[in-house]
Design a protein that fits this description.
Blueprint (H helix, E strand, L loop, with lengths): L5 E2 L5 E4 L19 E3 L8 E5 L4 E6 L5 E8 L2 E9 L5 E6 L5 E11 L2 E2 L8 E6 L3 E5 L21 E2 L8 E6 L2 E9 L9 E4 H6 L8 E2 L14
Parallel strand pairs: 3-5, 4-11, 12-16, 13-15
Antiparallel strand pairs: 1-12, 2-14, 5-8, 6-7, 6-9, 9-10, 9-11, 12-17, 13-16, 14-15
């Protein structure tokens, strides 16, 4: 479908289609970006968002001086991706830097003598990691036309255009604390450096409707396709 594309200003938007769980920690001056999660909080939110390369920070308590393993759930098996130690007061801070987009289920768990104490595992948390990609939006002046996927473009149609992802493929987006998951409904965008073109309704749901150009990270919910490149 041919359309006029509205570019978003220089802000970060993120797109993905995977999930994860994680317990995170407080930042230091050396940390940039990332998410923080207190594993010991009684009502800690179960979902966090970050970009590839961000530092995920885990915080909690364990026996003083004990080792703490940060673990990721992969194919039903917990794999240690980082370690730290609890201080004299039993507080610990651990950091993990995700290297690729997706959904991750993670936890921080004390260990003694190299043996992980599963019974002492902290709560898990879901973490979605996004890759930045150029994103625009479209819709105004084009309502009533048919999209490349056979749908009628309306002011309320929630979707996104992509050059190659199959019609109906779900893609999750993140922008300034807001998230949505929408299907591919059209083809495009075709400008240099652009990967996604949100319908106006989807952009409005993200509060991503300024004139200009933005960045978004993405991966297909239906598979391991990295659509953010």
């Amino acid at each position: 479908m041919t359309s006029s594309r509205h570019r978003i200003p220089a802000s970060i938007v993120a797109v993905t289609a995977l999930t994860a769980a994680l317990a995170c920690v407080p930042a230091t001056a050396a940390d940039t970006g990332g998410a923080e999660y207190d594993a010991s909080a009684p009502a800690a939110p179960p979902q966090r968002h970050a970009l590839v390369g961000d530092v995920m920070r885990f915080r909690g308590t364990a026996p003083a001086g004990s080792r703490v393993a940060v673990q990721q759930l992969e194919d039903g098996t917990w794999t240690t991706v980082a370690t730290t130690a609890a201080d004299a007061q039993g507080r610990y801070v651990a950091r993990w830097r995700p290297e690729h987009i997706g959904f991750f289920t993670m936890r921080a768990i004390p260990s003694t003598g190299g043996t992980v104490r599963a019974s002492a595992a902290e709560k898990t948390v879901n973490v979605t990691v996004y890759r930045p990609s150029g994103t625009t939006w479209f819709g105004r002046g084009l309502y009533g036309r048919s999209t490349a996927c056979g749908q009628k473009l309306t002011p309320t149609l929630m979707g996104v255009a992509h050059k190659t992802l199959p019609c109906g493929t779900k893609v999750a987006f993140y922008f300034r604390g807001r998230t949505i998951t929408v299907p591919v409904v059209d083809r495009g965008p075709f400008g240099a450096g652009l990967s996604y073109d949100l319908t106006y309704a989807a952009a409005e749901a993200l509060d991503f409707t300024e004139t200009g150009r933005g960045m978004v990270g993405a991966v297909s919910l239906g598979g391991r396709v990295d659509a953010g490149r």
